[in-house]
Write a structure and sequence with these properties.
heterodimer; A: 252 residues; alpha/beta; 4-stranded antiparallel beta sheet; globular; B: 615 residues; 10 strands; 60% helix
Chain lengths: 252, 615
């Protein structure tokens, strides 16, 4: 197969396999997984702990090597790229949001957000302007100069989302983005994702929170490294408020 | 008893779980204690060979010297009569001489050296008959016997021709004596009134017939006379000498002086004294470096240790027990390292205590005195406790809950570095920010390289000074000076160990930085930093303080060399480019070596680190 793909999907994964260990100790973290994510789509992946959700996300973002299979992003195969090429691909192609935030403690909110832009070679002035704009978008314009350690959990995750958007990535990969948050902070982050969905940002969210799953265009359920169920949810990609308002109502 | 058992169990498990760290700690402290043991145990080690030589040559208790002087009011004949008169006194058992002597230039094998030429009888003397180590004693005119270490430095042996004062002589033998210091110190107290400092410090002894010695005297270097005296009771040397001094008066009328055997022994001990001083200074440097390394090692384990402190406190451990469990392994390792240092020092000492070819026999291994053992133990404990006490107390003072949940000490925010580094290339931005996160660690890294460069510069300057000191008005050749060779060997050995320790420190610091910044670096990679940028960034985090340390180390080393030379040879600095090159090589070596642990860390899958859930 050539290294370019003519399918319309932004992100394509074919026969993904990721195995750990050997013999009796063999663990199939991913077992023949096929996946296509269209541009502008929000995909939620749910399942119990250890089912392979996070591994899938790391493989899609080029953070982890496959045992077998292919991953294509914007028509380019990325699973065979060198570490250096993968790093370059991540600068523009992927933005990560982690459950544990993974902000740099010694940096302020705005300094954290501008890090990917600086890695991508943006000028310091442009990177700072972009970071301030993003902080404003996530509702933290007044918190830019605060150290990340001085922020609440929800605020930290919003900073993390802003950081993920720093280089306008093709896809945002979020790993349990509300896993460490209380209900109020969870809703803040969900609102943010809803805005991103409305703006046409492609999102892949791994979660065990059904409220997060319910905001997606499509929901995939995983068990033992394989997809066991796929549901196309109503609401599509157009509703900026419908499903979230419904969720807020459910929460109330 | 239970508490002690618990502490011992924790120490044992820790050592088994972290053998590499324990080994590095042992190496760091043991290298310092070995140098310290060597430095402390070299006192008086040449006494034995000197005494053996003295016994084999019927060495004198007193050496009387007449040296021509413009201040003297008595003639040479009167002075010689006075010497002969001294030889007949009741306390004197035997004597030989007075022997004529003069300083002259000697050439052989294309080399030029200073020779204190002493005229002797063909027949054996009662006192100070040099003991032959090769060939035969003087047979007649034109024969020369060379002091053994002098012959060795010139590469001469029986049968070789030499030129003394323009006349050709034949070496018939080589011999040792206890009456004149060995090469290069035969004239260290000034054999002749007109000698330059260079000639004084690079002269050997040559025995020729009395007639030949007299014929070699010139107006610039006139004849002097020495008489070797054996006393009935050697313990009376001092009172006899003082009484004779009083009799002669102290205004220089007689131009006669006396030295006792202890003076000669003292000159001969110079061969080990220089290396001993170099080793003692080296031990200080090594102590500093090893303290820096141990501090980083202790710091790198702080998070893990803090959690353990929380755990022990949670199950009822008192602050004292907890602190003891924390400190115990460092104290244990430092005591083991002190033991290694004492044994290695004792085993290596004979390499430095050999008396050379100028004296007979071998020095025994120096004895480990109570003072040496206790000083070395105290130094090792000081290094370990100074490095681990503050982290121990800090951990013990922490509340149980925060100790249990606190993963790592929060990094420092270097606001200026963060702001300025935004404009730099990614690798340099990462490097500077990593260095600024842990300023104390960066400081230790800089100190480590700074001390290494300081020592290198001191060693290079010392070698250059020693080499230059032989280029004086007499145009003597740069001979293989056994004392300088020994100092040189010590300097090279100490510098090599210092470099090794600095390398270990650099690797430890990089490793600690890599572990500490694991999450930060994984996030950086997740957002597009390449493994190469991370590797170079980590190495740069060490290289930046190393560069600063090296830059400061050069002038500090030059100052140190000046301070060491106070009262001795004037310091002669090598060309600045040589010193700069030493600093550059050290910094480059640090950069290259730190890239190894940095590369290992950069190749670790970022996903493994990021999957770890942090509260």
């Amino acid at each position: 197969m050539s290294e370019t793909d003519s399918t319309t999907s932004l992100l394509t994964a074919r026969r993904l396999r990721k195995h750990h260990g050997k013999g009796a100790a063999l663990v199939r973290a991913l077992d023949d997984v096929d996946l296509e994510v269209a541009e502008g789509e929000t995909l939620a992946v749910m399942g119990p702990s250890g089912c392979g959700k996070s591994t899938l996300l790391h493989v899609l973002g080029g953070l982890e090597r496959l045992t077998d299979g292919e991953v294509w992003l914007a028509g380019k195969r990325i699973d065979r790229l060198s570490e250096k090429a993968l790093a370059r691909m991540r600068r523009r192609g992927v933005g990560f949001v982690f459950q544990a935030f993974h902000l740099m403690d010694e940096l302020t909110a705005v300094e954290n957000v501008e890090v990917p832009a600086l890695f991508a070679g943006m000028s310091p002035r442009a990177a700072r302007k972009r970071a301030l704009d993003l902080l404003e978008q996530v509702g933290l314009a007044d918190k830019g100069k605060q150290l990340s350690t001085a922020l609440s959990g929800g605020e930290r995750q919003r900073v993390a989302v802003a950081r993920a958007l720093s280089n306008e990535p093709l896809v945002v990969l979020a790993d349990e983005p509300t896993g460490n948050l209380d209900s109020a902070a969870t809703l803040d982050v969900l609102r943010l994702f809803d805005q991103l969905r409305a703006a046409g940002q492609t999102l892949v969210i791994v979660t065990h929170d059904s409220r997060v799953g319910a905001t997606a265009d499509r929901l995939i359920t995983m068990r033992d490294g394989a997809f066991v169920d796929e549901t196309r949810l109503t609401g599509g990609t157009s509703g900026a408020t419908g499903k979230l308002d419904m969720l807020i109502g459910l929460g109330d | 008893m239970g508490r002690l058992l618990l502490i011992l169990r924790i120490v044992g498990r820790d050592l088994r779980r972290r053998p590499v760290q324990a080994l590095l700690l042992l190496i760091a402290i043991a290298s310092a204690t070995t140098a310290m043991t060597l430095g402390l145990s070299l006192n008086d080690v040449t006494k034995d060979p000197y005494q053996q030589t003295r016994a084999a040559t019927d060495g004198p208790d007193l050496v009387m010297t007449y040296q021509q002087s413009s201040e003297a009011t008595h003639t040479q004949a009167e002075s010689l009569a006075k010497l002969n008169d001294f030889a007949t006194r009741p306390g004197v058992a035997a004597h030989s001489g007075p022997w004529p002597a003069t300083w002259t230039r000697m050439t052989a094998n294309g080399l030029t050296a200073g020779a204190e030429t002493i005229g002797r009888d063909v027949a054996p003397a009662l006192v100070d008959q040099p003991k032959l180590t090769a060939g035969a004693w003087l047979g007649g005119a034109g024969d020369a016997v060379l002091e053994a270490s002098f012959a060795s430095a010139l590469g001469l042996g029986p049968g070789d021709p030499i030129t003394l004062g323009g006349r050709t002589f034949r070496v018939v033998g080589t011999a040792v004596t206890a009456a004149v210091p060995t090469f290069p110190d035969a004239c260290n107290d000034g054999c002749e009134p007109n000698m330059s400092r260079q000639a004084e410090s690079s002269t050997g002894t040559v025995w020729v017939t009395q007639a030949d010695a007299k014929s070699l005297a010139t107006a610039a270097y006139p004849l002097s006379y020495t008489m070797d005296v054996k006393l009935k009771d050697p313990a009376t040397a001092d009172p006899i000498m003082f009484a004779f001094g009083d009799e002669l008066g102290h205004n220089g009328d007689w131009a006669i002086s006396a030295d006792d055997a202890a003076d000669v022994a003292l000159q001969d001990s110079l061969i080990t004294r220089g290396p001993q001083q170099a080793m003692q200074i080296g031990a200080w440097m090594l102590g500093l470096l090893s303290a820096a390394g141990v501090t980083v090692l202790v710091g790198s384990r702080l998070a893990e240790q803090t959690r353990r402190v929380g755990l022990l406190k949670a199950v009822g451990g008192s602050p004292g027990t907890v602190a003891a469990s924390f400190l115990a392994q460092y104290v244990f390792l430092s005591l083991v390292a002190a033991g290694f240092g004492l044994v290695f020092g004792w085993l290596l000492a004979p390499l430095l205590t050999s008396p050379g070819s100028g004296l007979l026999g071998h020095a025994p291994s120096p004895s480990l005195t109570g003072r040496t053992v206790s000083t070395v133990l105290a130094a090792a404990l000081t290094i370990a406790i100074a490095s681990s006490l503050i982290p121990s107390l800090r951990a013990v003072r922490k509340s149980t809950v925060s100790a249990l949940v606190d993963s790592v000490r929060r990094p420092r925010r270097g606001a200026l570095t963060i702001r300025m580094s935004r404009r730099l290339p990614v690798w340099l931005m990462l490097g500077l920010r990593l260095a600024a996160r842990r300023p104390r660690r960066s400081l230790l890294s800089g100190v480590s390289v700074g001390v290494t460069v300081l020592t290198l510069v001191t060693a290079i300057t010392a070698r250059h000074t020693l080499a230059s000191s032989f280029l004086g008005p007499e145009h003597l050749s740069n001979l293989r000076n056994p004392r300088i060779q020994r100092i040189d060997a010590v300097l090279v050995a100490v510098t090599a160990v210092l470099i090794a320790l600095a390398v270990i420190n650099a690797v430890i610091v990089t490793w600690a930085t890599a572990l500490d910044a694991q999450r930060t670096l994984a996030v950086a990679r997740a957002f597009g930093a390449t493994p190469g940028q991370v590797t170079v960034g980590l190495a740069a985090a060490q290289t930046a303080p190393a560069l600063l340390g090296a830059i400061l180390g050069v002038p500090a080393g030059m100052g140190f060399a000046l301070a060491l030379a106070k009262g001795g040879h004037a310091t002669v600095f090598p060309p600045v480019w040589q010193l700069a090159l030493a600093a550059l090589v050290t910094v480059s070596a640090t950069a290259v070596l730190t890239a190894v642990p940095a590369r290992i860390e950069a190749r670790r899958p970022a996903a493994d680190v990021l999957q770890v859930e942090l509260a």
